[in-house]
Structures are given as structure tokens and as C-alpha cells.
TrEMBL record:
It comes from the Bacteria. Signal peptide: none annotated. This is protein-tyrosine-phosphatase. InterPro entries: LMW_PTPase (IPR050438), Ptyr_pPase (IPR023485), Ptyr_pPase_sf (IPR036196), Tyr_phospatase_low_mol_wt (IPR017867). Keywords: Hydrolase, Protein phosphatase. GO terms for molecular function: protein tyrosine phosphatase activity. The active site is at C19, R25, D137 (proton donor). Pfam families: LMWPc (PF01451). The keyword Hydrolase applies. The keyword Hydrolase applies. It is an enzyme of class 3 (hydrolase).
Length: 171
């Protein structure tokens, strides 16, 4: 499925990455995707942020295991968790869910079919993700789960950056 067109072609393309708590997966995806886009020369053309569907951790730093994993691989870690608000849809071109629960929650909040078409699974941009392209919740697992998540996110971010380069490069 091709990327949705920007709502405002004169501004940057706006991507929001969404998980449950906004302290593990989506902040990791925000940092990794932002880094990838910068390397691809798209820093000014795409704006990335993140949020959780839940509100438990609003204002909190990233999970210490998520931050340690990012740091180990050279990514930044500054973060303050936020909850996704339905009025953000109007200001995002693409909203990317980490798992199918997040996807269902977002689709329930989406006001119309045009907005629903902008909601996708983040890992669907990884060429090797298979038929169930989720990034599983690492919160209740061990440290190795965070490496698995980082690897999944890196592959998906690379695929998405490539698609964004094609979409925006032709403008
Ligand atoms: P995340 O992980 O959705 O990747 O940020 C979680 C963080 C916190 C909780 C669940 C998942 N929690 O239940 O508090």
C-alpha cells in the first residue's frame, strides 16, 4: 500500500508513532526513524513524534531499558511521554501503530475513512516482517526483548525512510 499524500504539501510530512505507554517502543521508533531520515537528507522534510494510547506514563522519561538499548547503538534518548489525542489526526499525515491492539485503538478514535487510511502498522514497512508485522510489547520481558525490538524498528525505519524519499523526492 502506498504512503498517504501529505495533507499540506507545502509543509513537512508528519508522522506519529504510537504504542501503549509511549515509554518503550514508540519513543525508540521516534529516535531511530528521525536518525534514519537525517542520514537520508530528509530531516527538514519529515517531522516525527510519538505517543501512547494509554495515559499512565504521561510526562515520564523513556523506560531505562529502552534508553540503554538506544544509547548502546548510538541513538539519542531525551523524551517526555504523551498520550495520543484524537485531534492530532488532523495534523498528521501518517499514524503508525506498533501492534494490532494499538492499531485497533487508533482506528476506533479515527473520525473518518480518510483518516483511517493514514493509520498503519509501523512494521509493515519492513520487507522481512511476514504476515503479522507487529513490534511486540517488551515492557514485561527481559533486556533481550529490547534488542529484538530495536532490530525490528531499524528494519522498518529503513523501509519507511526509503518510501518517504520516493514520495517526497518527486516534489
Ligand atoms: P510501550 O510499553 O507501549 O512500548 O511503551 C509499555 C509501557 C508501559 C506499559 C505497557 C507497555 N504499562 O502497562 O505500563
Amino acid at each position: 500500500m502506498s504512503l498517504p499524500e501529505p495533507r499540506d504539501p507545502s509543509g513537512p510530512y508528519r508522522v506519529c508513532v504510537v504504542c501503549l505507554g509511549n515509554i518503550c517502543r514508540s519513543p525508540m521508533a521516534e529516535k531511530i526513524l528521525t536518525t534514519d531520515l537525517g542520514r537520508a537528507g530528509l530531516a527538514d522534510r519529515v517531522r516525527v513524534d510519538s505517543a501512547g494510547t494509554g495515559n499512565w506514563h504521561v510526562g515520564a522519561d523513556m523506560d531505562t531499558r529502552a534508553a540503554a538499548t538506544l544509547r548502546k547503538y548510538g541513538y539519542p534518548t531525551g523524551h517526555a511521554a504523551r498520550q495520543f489525542s484524537p485531534d492530532w489526526f488532523a495534523e498528521r499525515d501518517l499514524v503508525l501503530a506498533m501492534d494490532t491492539d494499538n492499531l485497533a485503538d487508533l482506528l476506533r478514535l479515527a473520525p473518518d475513512p480518510e483518516t483511517e487510511a493514514r493509520v498503519r502498522l509501523f512494521r509493515s514497512f519492513a520487507p522481512d516482517a511476514g504476515p503479522n508485522p507487529e513490534v511486540p510489547d517488551p515492557y514485561y520481558g527481559g533486556d533481550d526483548g529490547f534488542i529484538t525490538v530495536l532490530n525490528m524498528i531499524e528494519a522498518a525505519a529503513k523501509g519507511l525512510t526509503g518510501e518517504l524519499a520516493v514520495l517526497l523526492g518527486s516534489r
